[in-house]
Structure formats: C-alpha cells, structure tokens
Amino acid sequence: MSTIDESNKSQIEENAKISTEQSSPNLIDVLLGQKEHRVVDSETMILETQKRIWGALKQGYEYTGITDESERFLRKNVFSKFDIIVLYVDLVGSTTMTLELPEDKLAIIISSFALEMASVITLHGGYVLKFVGDAVIGYFVASENPLLAADNAVSCAKSMLTVIQKGINPILNQYDYPDLMVKIGVDFGQSIVVRYGSNPDASPVDLMGPAMNIASKIQSLAKPNQILIGDDVHHRLHPSSQSSFKEIVWRNNEWKYRSRLTGKIYPVYEYGS
Questions:
Q1: Largest CB tally within 10 Å, which of 29, 117, 125, 141?
Q2: DSSP string, the chain
Q3: CATH 3.30.70.1230 fits 6-220, yes or no
Q4: Tens of pLDDT along 54-83?
Q5: Where are the domains of the chain?
C-alpha cells in the first residue's frame, strides 16, 4: 500500500474543501443528471474523483443529481428488442473489507465506488442499469451504431481502471484503507426490455438476453483489474483497439460457453495494458 506525504495530503484536502464549498454544480452531479454526456479529460476526471472521495470520507459528501435515465428509457420501450453492449464491473475483495473496516466507512467506500463507476458509464454515453451489491451493471445501446457503442464500452472499462487506480486508491491510502480492485466483463447481443407487473409507472423494468448472462460469466472469470470482452464485442472494435486485446487460451475447462452461431467455444479476449 502506498503512502502519500503530508504536504500532498494537505493539498488534496484543501482542493477538496474548496470544491465542496463552491456553489457551482459538481461535475458528477451534472453528468449524471443530463442526457448528453460531456467529454472530460482523464486528468480532470481523476482530480474530481479524488475531491469527491475525500469529501465522502471526511465530510460525508453525498452524491446528488442522479437521475434514472435508464429506467425512463426502459419504460418507454417495454417489450422492445435492442442490440446492446453490457458491462459488468464488480468489486474484488469486498468480503475481506467487511471484516477489516468499520461498517460506516465500508458503506461510504462501496457506495462511492459504485457511484463513481456510474459516472464513468454516463460519461461514455451508456446507461446505468442497476447496482447489485458491490457490482454495477451498465449498457450501451448498439442498434444504430454498434461500432461506436463497442468503442465507447471498452473506453469506459479502461477509464474505470484509471479512476480506481489514480483517483480513488490514492485517497484511500491516506487513511490506510486497502486499494480497490475490480473485474470487468463486456459482451454484445440482443436483449428485450421486460416489465414485471402491469403498472407502467411503478412495476420493475429490466433487460433480459444472452449478453446479460455472458457478460456476467466473463466478468466472474477475470482477474483483479482485468478487462475481458466477448468476441461479439471484439470484432466490432476499431482495429486500433482490437490490437490491444489478445484471445484467452482456456485450460481445465474454465470456459464452456459455445456460440449459438458457430457451435464452437465462444472466444473471449483480455485487455493488455
């Protein structure tokens, strides 16, 4: 675990105080509350993340402005079918954290992590489907432009690692909290919007389809801080992005899923930074 000297710590805390005291809307609040995502450079994204995490741990900062764009989109399209790219991001080692950290701090860390991941999804033009324990599920509508959706989803996954490693963890280290690590799985496929009940405004809505299941299974096989994508995502990526992935050679029958189109083992690719 890395240690940050007191001068750096003081500087970050001072920046965070200034940020939380300003009356202008916070970056994440604006991004999560609007339809059109804004392009934010990595340096700005990391700095804003650090300010929010510091504020959550030190001052009880609460994330605001989160609107459920996904639910509105799904309710408008109940029983419709869409090509989507699904992204699962799951926190690694949360059981150990549960045993080591006070409950209040654990709740702040996990909720802040989930909302930071949600902001990254929104930044890259995706929807946040739901929070499941310490996992976040996002999706990118790919019916009109699957190539763009694939690139956005993969860029989103890479940004998640950047935010965690350079934004969240340096602040946690100041308080001797453990580094966060994640596993990310991404896949493409057609899904249908389902509604559980007859009330169009209140009955739960969700997405159902093979991509939801495969992305979850791919994510479960990833190593800490590893991005895995299915072949249906890989072949839709720009060639420059494809070259940063390599196909996984499975051993000991770790992966048994077969493509419904070819009948062969469905290829999965890992990101090599």
A1: 117
A2: -----HHHHHHHHHHHHHHHH-SSPPHHHHHHT-SS-----HHHHHHHHHHHHHHHHHH---------HHHHHHHHTTT-EEEEEEEEEEEESHHHHHHHS-HHHHHHHHHHHHHHHHHHHHHTT-EEEEEETTEEEEEEE-SS-HHHHHHHHHHHHHHHHHIIIIIIHHHHHHTTPPPPEEEEEEEEEEEEEEESSS-TTTS-EEEESHHHHHHHHHHHHPPTTEEEEEHHHHTTS-HHHHTTEEE----TT----B-TTTSSBPPEEEE--
A3: yes
A4: 988 887 777 765 668 999 999 999 999 999
A5: 6-220
